[in-house]
Q: What sequence folds into this?
């Protein structure tokens, strides 16, 4: 690989080090809240399709296989949007692409409510909405990792990821139970359109990532952000000159993902992400329908979906807290996925409500919650100049797995006549994810890409 080390000149201020060593402050919290608002868009749409199956299956003539295709439809757009978001974010900046996704997804939510009158029209609109939503998560994860203080990075990123994404995903079930019986399934997407208010707030108050600005040498824009993140260092910033340490490479960020230094980790991440989201989306997409077949009423079936999503907060924070103290995220994430597989097995065998509640809560905590910390591990592995691309391609390929989750689950149920084989397939996928995470080696020295734009 064509790269060489860059030493930090005496008297220069290393922006990367300043951000990592910053004490957690009010400006961190404000930026974290704004990122949470972005992730709410993504989370809210995650389970919406699952909550409208009850209303559209009859009128649209849906078999289990066609239901699976409907549940997976938006994920095709998600995968494509995620795959290109990092490349765009590394070229044009995190902020502009995040804003494009926010405005686009809000508008498309309203379009679904107004114009989706058949399976074909719903799929077409949801794929388009997925393209916009796919831009959000990779760059939101990238952004929040680039501002997180090192000593609390796992808890900080897990907390604000959960605050937005899980709040959106868990609230969808509650809103569905409350609104759809009275106002129809379209009400879910009208509520999604209200998120355009959040898009305006983000437009007004979210600055560009200081690490991205530093990687482009835009020091006049970096300085005001550092003043706010580390006001105690204002005098040093006035007197010093800024620089960013690391190594320089003359390869594109996409090429570096499969270079010798990153190849094994990149391939392991891609496979682990695809299997993890295959499991998470397969469970989430079919959970309300399976609970209805087990005799639950509509409201309680939707509540199980919200519990599954909401418990990801607990799982992500627990895993993040332990990872910050243990220091080896790989082992923590792998152990969490093993617990997730155990909860999937318990859910398959559950016959009473108490056991079902425990299994659903545990699966949410240790399947979806583990994914949150896995996202942070991926972001921390890659340097600033290729981080957006690394996270974006990871989530794009992961969402191909997510796209197959509900569809494969539907085919398995139609073939076997019940959900047993589906649970077995999902449990096996979660265990394979745990094994793959352990193959990820320790991080290599970060590189700075000079010809990325």
A:
């Amino acid at each position: 690989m064509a790269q060489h080390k860059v030493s930090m000149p005496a008297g220069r201020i290393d922006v990367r080090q300043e951000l990592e060593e910053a004490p957690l402050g009010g400006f961190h919290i404000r930026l974290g809240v704004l990122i949470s608002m972005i992730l709410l868009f993504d989370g809210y749409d995650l389970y919406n399709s699952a909550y409208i199956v009850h209303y559209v299956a009859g009128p649209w003539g849906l078999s289990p296989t066609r239901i699976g295709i409907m549940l997976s439809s938006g994920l095709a757009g998600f995968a494509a949007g995620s795959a290109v978001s990092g490349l765009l974010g590394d070229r044009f900046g995190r902020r502009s692409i995040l804003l494009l996704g926010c405005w686009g997804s809000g508008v498309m939510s309203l379009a679904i409510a107004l114009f989706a009158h058949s399976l074909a029209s719903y799929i077409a609109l949801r794929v388009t909405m997925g393209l916009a939503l796919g831009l959000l998560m990779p760059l939101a994860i990238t952004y929040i990792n680039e501002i997180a203080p090192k000593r609390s990075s796992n808890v900080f990123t897990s907390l604000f990821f959960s605050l937005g994404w899980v709040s959106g995903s868990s609230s969808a079930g509650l809103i569905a139970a409350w609104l759809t019986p009275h106002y129809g399934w379209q009400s879910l997407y009208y509520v999604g359109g209200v998120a355009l208010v959040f898009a305006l707030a983000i437009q007004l108050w979210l600055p560009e990532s200081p690490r991205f600005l530093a990687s482009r040498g835009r020091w006049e824009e970096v300085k005001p952000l550092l003043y706010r993140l580390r006001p105690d260092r204002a005098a040093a910033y006035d007197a010093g000159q800024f620089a960013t340490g690391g190594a320089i490479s003359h390869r594109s960020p996409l090429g570096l993902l499969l270079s010798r230094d990153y190849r094994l980790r990149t391939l392991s991440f891609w496979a682990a992400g695809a299997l993890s989201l295959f499991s998470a989306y397969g469970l989430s997409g079919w959970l309300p329908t399976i609970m209805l077949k087990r005799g639950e009423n509509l409201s309680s079936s939707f509540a199980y979906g919200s519990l599954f999503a909401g418990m990801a907060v607990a799982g992500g924070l627990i895993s993040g807290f332990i990872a910050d103290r243990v220091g080896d995220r790989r082992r923590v994430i792998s152990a969490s996925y093993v617990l997730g597989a155990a909860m999937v097995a318990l859910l398959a065998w559950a016959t009473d409500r108490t056991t079902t509640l425990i299994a659903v809560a545990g699966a949410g905590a240790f399947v979806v919650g583990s994914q949150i910390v896995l996202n942070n591990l991926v972001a921390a592995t890659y340097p600033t100049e290729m981080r957006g691309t690394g996270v974006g391609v990871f989530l794009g390929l992961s969402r191909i797995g997510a796209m197959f989750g509900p569809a494969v689950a539907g085919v398995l149920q139609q073939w076997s006549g019940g959900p047993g084989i589906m649970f077995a397939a999902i449990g096996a996928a979660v265990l394979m994810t745990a094994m793959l995470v352990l193959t990820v080696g320790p991080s290599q020295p970060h590189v700075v890409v000079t010809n990325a734009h």
Q: What stands out?
A: The chain has one domain: 3-449.
